[in-house]
């Protein structure tokens, strides 16, 4: 997987260099991105991060569109600086003019939400149930207290968990 993405990144840079007749510093490429984003360009660090799961599920479009999309951000930054809009006319110029691709802001890949554990807390209200994230549950274990806004009672852990 990394080889194809690295090759596409390099091809995008070569296209931009031929178009603008100047060279561009190559970015660091990382595959440590999860969640809903397919890719992220870190402008000041000259770094690209890609989502390996979304790549596996959408290889052809990902290589063509997503990689070019993120490279275009770095090229736009190197050409025009930080004061431009992320998906503004400079970025769109690169997407259309250099890569001959539609300047879509967002991907339309199907993204599966991961399951999360919720820790159930209660107060004295009749329907006072509060599902806490594992982070918030850990804070309670360290001594933090949370209160019900209605009855002002400290929320207490019921011992119940559920997966959402």
Automatic annotation (TrEMBL):
Coiled-coil positions: none
Residue ranges of every copy of the SprT-like domain listed in the record: 7-158
Gene Ontology BP annotations: response to stress
Any single Pfam family the record assigns to this protein: SprT-like
InterPro entries: SprT-like_domain
Protein name: SprT
The organism of origin for this protein: Pseudomonas taeanensis MS-3
Lineage: Bacteria, Pseudomonadati, Pseudomonadota, Gammaproteobacteria, Pseudomonadales
């Amino acid at each position: 997987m990394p080889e194809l993405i690295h090759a596409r990144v390099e091809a995008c840079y070569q296209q931009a260099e031929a178009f603008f007749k100047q060279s561009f510093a190559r970015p660091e490429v990382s595959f440590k991105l999860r969640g809903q984003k397919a890719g992220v360009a870190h402008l000041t660090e000259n770094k690209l991060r890609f989502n390996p799961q979304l790549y596996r599920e959408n290889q052809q479009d990902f290589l063509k569109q997503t990689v070019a999309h993120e490279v275009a951000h770095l090229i736009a930054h190197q050409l025009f600086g930080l004061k431009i809009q992320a998906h503004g006319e400079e970025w769109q110029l690169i997407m259309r003019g250099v890569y001959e691709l539609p300047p879509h802001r967002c991907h339309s890949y199907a993204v599966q939400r991961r399951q999360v554990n919720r820790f159930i807390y209660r107060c004295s209200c009749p329907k006072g149930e509060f599902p806490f994230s594992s982070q918030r549950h850990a804070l309670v274990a360290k001594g933090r207290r949370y209160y019900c806004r209605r009855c002002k009672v400290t929320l207490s852990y019921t011992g119940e968990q559920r997966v959402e």
